[in-house]
Amino acid sequence: MAAYRADDDYDYLFKVVLIGDSGVGKSNLLSRFTRNEFSLESKSTIGVEFATRSIHVDDKIVKAQIWDTAGQERSVACYDVTRHVTFENVERWLKELRDHTDSNIVIMFVGNKADLRHLRAVSTEDAKAFAERENTFFMETSALESLNVENAFTEVLSQIYRVVSRKALDLGDDPTALPKGQTINVGSKDDVSAVKKVGCCST
């Protein structure tokens, strides 16, 4: 598991937003990845919550600012494997997401609560087929058992980093030496991934 870093110790800051129906476990995925905590008594998110966590991608420190938005905003699309309706609704969430972002958006499709095997309503095969059709990454997770939570967020951040690196190459820049302070859009104008500004701490 990657070590936690000081708030100002990173090379890149990426914004990742959790989307999906209420009750699919977005808040517990957030708290498991950022604080290694799980709450059986978690209530529906009101308003917006966010947390941060840094990981290593290649030789860079990537800091994630992860937002849980009560299912009202827009790169991790979540559903509950025990509630088929939440799986059906992901198509609408993805359409909304893509309507407000560009084609470079990185999306991880996550089936949460995989520990509830006896209550499963969505098969892994159906979810994989949907992810392939929608051209998204896919993983099943359990915030309770800490299954694949780290892997899902690490994969999404690594892929965002690769998009940023490719954009730099397209611009003729060296991706290992991106200009400091340059903002690089990988989503909508609100979903911005930015290189850390020298001498400035992002909040």
UniProtKB/TrEMBL annotation:
Stretches of the chain forming a coiled coil according to its record: none
Keyword Lipid biosynthesis listed: no
InterPro entries, per database record: P-loop_NTPase, Rab_GTPases_membrane_traffic, Small_GTP-bd, Small_GTPase
Pfam families: Ras (PF00071)
Keywords assigned: GTP-binding, Lipoprotein, Membrane, Nucleotide-binding, Prenylation, Protein transport, Transport
Protein's UniProt keywords contain Secreted: no
GO MF, one example: GTP binding
GO CC field: endomembrane system
Location in the cell: Endomembrane system
GO biological process: protein transport
Major location (coarse): membrane
Gene3D superfamilies in UniProt: P-loop containing nucleotide triphosphate hydrolases (3.40.50.300)
Membrane topology: Lipid-anchor
Homology family: Belongs to the small GTPase superfamily. Rab family.
Protein's recorded name: Ras-related protein RABA1f
Organism: Eutrema salsugineum (Saltwater cress)
Phylogenetic placement of the source organism: Eukaryota, Viridiplantae, Streptophyta, Embryophyta, Tracheophyta
